[in-house]
Batch of 2 targets.
Target 1
Amino acid sequence: MRRLGRTNRTRRKKRTNKPVIDCSEEIVSLSKWMKRESKSHGFKWRSMLYPANFLDTGRGMMTRETLRPGDVIVSIPQHLLITLETVLSSNIGDLIKRQKLKLSSQQLLSLFLLSERNKGDNSYWHPYIDTLPKSHTTVGYFSARELTLFPPKLRKAAESRISDIKQAYCEVKEFHSGETIQYEDFLWAWFCVNSRSVFYRSARSEFVREDGNHLALAPYLDLLNHSTEAQVEAGFNEKTGSYEIRTHNNYRKYSQVFISYGSHDNGHLLVEYGFTLPDNPNDALTVDYDVVMEAAKSLNVSYTEKKQDVIQTNNLHRKLACTVEGLSWNLLMIIQILAMDWTELQNWKNVLKGSVISPRNERLSRNIARVFLAQYLHQNQELVNKFPPFSSRTRMENLIFSIVQTERDILHLTWTSVT
Ligand SMILES: C[S@@+](CC[C@H](N)C(=O)[O-])C[C@H]1O[C@@H](n2cnc3c(N)ncnc32)[C@H](O)[C@@H]1O
């Protein structure tokens, strides 16, 4: 084999994405605790997944065995789950009951985490709490200036989310008599629950607000990262008395094992989980119906009232978007309808067959698309201009930039498809 020079060797080293087993004190303590506490309840704890650090995702789970579809990848005994029963039977549960509060499951789990964190080594859950991130890169952590870098729709969604969290905080901040919970602490706990909890249906209680969220925390299991390709089945197995995750994917020995947090685009992943994925297939740029109509009117298309009537009656004005594949189906239908002459409009349903209406229609509909795409590209460029140069960007700015960049790529690809 050819001998490599030092530069080449370094490059080769950097390119390999070998996981490094996480031997930190916290992870070792967590594993020992899981083993000990499982044994004390008659469970045999043996995990084929190991916490490890990966170049692209940070800490996650590595398998030490080959995995096949149908394999159970992780199994957590019930008494090691933090459920609403756990919370309500704890000391803060007593306080909640005494004050006759009715809180959401996310508020309850957040209060529990805070209370157990305050106990330090004296908490039963200490080995778990110690492995939780110290901070997050989710929505409540962005400064007001950083929020101005968000694309407008995502910014609106983010601001609405922040106001929901503030509301949830205001409801509980004084609940410890004589001791106010700090917003930063609540935010930390809220996002630990938000990004790490599993679906788990606890028994109904007069102290729990029914909001459709049935949550529990599952130590160890919550070290699994998200991938859009992961297919899993998760839930409590009454027979084994454990919360289990079964994969439907194949994994090679020593590779990272993933679960799916849902079919989320990068905007949602950033706001709720604090990360983005390269090439997320769920990414799309939503297009406003009004913007399309304005584009058509600026090109003096005729019979706009009649055309709007056709579009809206047939619900074609919904789900307007661009993706890396180009214009969404509804958007394609709309621009062709808007480009129709009177004769074509009488048989507008021809558009549903997917064939070209006429060369003139094709030209005009592409022009309409170019007008609104140019407007979105201009808005996108204005956002790009607000970012500092790459070398001086913060981690948060880089995360937001990846979203702005994806929108830009989508717009460019769509532009190419209509020229
Ligand atoms: C349930 S935890 C997964 C374990 C986490 N990485 C840890 O070390 O504790 C969810 C968090 O992991 C991170 N995460 C999950 N999937 C990721 C991915 N594919 N790439 C980068 N970070 C990811 C995000 O910070 C997310 O909020």
Target 2
Amino acid sequence: MKPITIIGGGLAGLTLGLLLRRRKVPVKLYEAGSYPRHRVCGEYLSGRALSIIDSLGLRNHLESSGAAESQDVVVARGASALPRHQLPRPALCISRYAFDRLLAEELSRAGGMIETRTRAPTEAGEGIVLATGRQPSAIQAGWRWFGLKAHARGVRLDAGLEMHFSPHGYVGLCRIEKQQVNVCGLFRSRNPVPDLATSWKKWLGGEPSSLLHQRLQQAEWEESSFTSMAALSLTPRKSADQIGLRVGDALTMIPPVTGNGMSMAIEGASLAAGPILEWSSGQRNWATATGKVSRLLDQTFASRLRHASWLQHAMLEPFPQSVAWTLCRMFPGFPSVLFRLTR
Ligand SMILES: Cc1cc2nc3c(=O)[nH]c(=O)nc-3n(C[C@H](O)[C@H](O)[C@H](O)COP(=O)(O)OP(=O)(O)OC[C@H]3O[C@@H](n4cnc5c(N)ncnc54)[C@H](O)[C@@H]3O)c2cc1C
């Protein structure tokens, strides 16, 4: 079997490594950081990836690490909230601190070689998969997008997931392991925001009159879990237009409001594994394996990326936000429709 090199040890790279090791492909993975580590992420895992997690036999491990099942959602805007809504399928909520570490341990156990604290060159080539995370973009249509995440205790929630919208962005709250709540927000600003390391609680804490502010009033923040990420690019990208075999955010980022990026990283790894195995065992050359992966990824993700772009716009522009809010009020099943369309 020919060996594969994976650059980037987030969910996409680690899942791909594990799937390939289970089929005896030699795997070497380079990760710039080390495990465990916090990531900017809403830590709400929902969608088709859950069946891949099951097929890898990882659900029990996640549950014994404290992953919380989330069934319902409350959507709020300022001080008002819509009634609690049951979502079509439950999600699993677990910190990336625990999740990525668990996958890295599983990959090592399966015989994968992981080199941490090593930033590898990101040039495409035969036998190389780029799983390096988002492709940064400083400004998009005049906006600077940034994400903030921290864990807190002492936060009471009315549903497994709460989404709080404001004119600057939104904050999601979900229960994760060890009685903690993940507080994660996506924001936009016309100007640079240089003081995030000191002002993050203000951004995440919401306007003083909001329900979000009320929720977080008693929060005991886990200061060491704070992370931020700037230069987010939310424009969908097609695999066919890019160089090299890419999975996860290195391929394209789905707007985080969908809570589907982790699933896409895991699904993308699963779609790529078959053609890579065929290359490794000599049944295909690299160019045809890459072409097949590219087609599978573009076909699988096109529709949800299209709907997600529309949803992202509707959630953040004032007029579409009011329309979406009214639709949710009038048709209680509307959030479930959006949920289905972005998965
Ligand atoms: C604000 C926000 C909230 C989100 N909330 C959710 C949510 O609730 N649910 C959900 O499903 N998704 C969510 N997402 C999306 C989700 O976090 C990503 O889609 C997911 O992390 C993608 O995984 P990945 O493995 O592709 O990339 P990453 O997790 O970013 O991993 C990439 C890895 O590559 C490493 N790396 C990069 N360059 C190199 C190099 N040259 N050499 C070696 N290593 C390298 C990095 O250190 C990193 O560990 C959210 C995203 C944001 C920004």
